[in-house]
């Protein structure tokens, strides 16, 4: 057996890549902490300040804030002046790290890294024995997902997403029946119900926690044209009951997405429209080589989307099921007219405009 000679230049470059990966992973965790504690939001409002001043303003422990700032400085997120012992967050960085920067706040997405890390042991067990990790194992998932969709889908709903469907705004204004399948915490549906009081809205989700959150928000908004129900998406029984059905980042998580799509087809009126938002990707890995978030999305898929489906004995499509499979499954469900639309500011999602 011959020994393969190493290309030392390539080996050293890859070693450097690995070190960069470790530093980036560490920064993802620190970014999540900066977001959850509000440190980025506080620093965006402050002139150069000491660690104590920043901690006092954020109402946090100074020692932890100082160590966090060490990571932020060495990671080139935060600037530091040794003479004054002061730190500051450049405005150009704050534009992608603060809540006021929505929908461009990437710090919110960093929470997924820490969240997925909590199920690493269970995922490794699945690698060895198969099966999956259930939704119940993911603490804070619905909270993080609601924040994610809040600054992407919900924020763009009125101005960009709903106008993708010709005539939809007028129909919603006049009054139609709307169903959101896999509604999660209900932020998108509650926003639509608030915008269009003449229409009637229903949301289904299997999570009791998410439905409770959705109902609380609806009550706080004083909405009377909306209802939320705890229901498995595979058990839709309605026949031609809705004019407009939506799923936001929900189909690929289902145990049996084929059954869900068939149920949506039956529940949609003949002249109705189904709007399916899902991840923009190909079903084939070689077509995703230049995807700007490919590694992140495959990781989220492996450690959440795919495994929660497999935990229920499902198909385990995963987040990267892709356009090709999506189109085939829509056709198999009975749909004959599908148009894929995209938004200029959103590289991550496809919007499927689907009719019978």
From TrEMBL:
Tell me the protein's name.
Answer: Methyltransferase domain-containing protein
Q: Note the superkingdom of the native organism.
A: Bacteria
Q: Which GO terms describe its biological process?
A: methylation
Which controlled-vocabulary keywords does the entry list? Methyltransferase, Transferase
Q: Which InterPro entries match?
A: Methyltranfer_dom, SAM-binding_MTase, SAM-dependent_MTases_sf, WHD_Rv2258c
List each copy of the Methyltransferase domain by range: 173-299
The family database entries (Pfam families) matched by this protein are listed as: Methyltransf_31, WHD_Rv2258c
Q: Name one GO molecular function term.
A: methyltransferase activity
Positions of the S-adenosylmethionine-dependent methyltransferase Rv2258c-like winged HTH domain: 25-99
């Amino acid at each position: 057996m011959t020994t393969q000679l190493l290309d030392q230049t390539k080996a050293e470059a890859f070693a450097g890549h690995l070190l960069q990966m470790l530093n980036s992973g560490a920064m993802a965790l620190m970014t999540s902490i900066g977001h959850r504690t509000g440190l980025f939001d506080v620093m965006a409002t402050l002139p150069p300040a000491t660690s104590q001043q920043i901690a006092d303003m954020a109402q946090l422990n100074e020692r932890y804030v100082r160590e966090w700032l060490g990571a932020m400085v060495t990671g080139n997120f935060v600037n530091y002046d040794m003479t004054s012992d002061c730190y500051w967050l450049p405005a150009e960085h704050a534009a992608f790290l603060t809540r006021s920067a929505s929908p461009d706040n990437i710090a919110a997405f960093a929470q997924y890294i820490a969240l997925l890390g909590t199920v690493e042991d269970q995922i490794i067990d699945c690698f060895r024995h198969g099966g999956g990790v259930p939704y119940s194992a993911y603490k804070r998932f619905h909270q993080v997902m609601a924040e994610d969709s809040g600054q992407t889908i919900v924020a763009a709903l009125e101005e960009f997403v709903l106008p993708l469907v010709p005539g939809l705004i007028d129909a919603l204004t006049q009054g139609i029946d709307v169903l959101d399948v896999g509604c999660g915490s209900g932020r998108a549906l509650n926003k639509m119900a608030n915008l269009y009081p003449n229409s009637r809205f229903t949301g289904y989700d299997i999570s009791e926690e998410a439905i409770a959150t959705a109902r609380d928000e609806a009550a706080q908004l004083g909405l009377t044209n909306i209802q939320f129900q705890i229901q498995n998406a595979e058990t839709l029984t309605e026949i031609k009951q809705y004019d407009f059905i939506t799923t936001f980042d929900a189909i690929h998580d289902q145990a049996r997405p084929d059954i869900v799509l068939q149920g949506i087809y039956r529940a949609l009126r003949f002249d109705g429209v189904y709007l399916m938002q899902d991840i923009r990707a190909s079903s084939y890995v070689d077509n995703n080589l230049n995807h700007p978030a490919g590694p992140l999305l495959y990781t989220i898929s492996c450690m959440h989307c795919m495994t929660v489906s497999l935990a229920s004995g499902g198909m385990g499509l995963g987040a990267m099921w892709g356009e090709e499979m999506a189109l085939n499954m829509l056709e198999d469900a009975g749909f004959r007219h599908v148009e894929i639309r995209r938004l200029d500011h959103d590289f991550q999602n496809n919007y499927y405009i689907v009719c019978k």
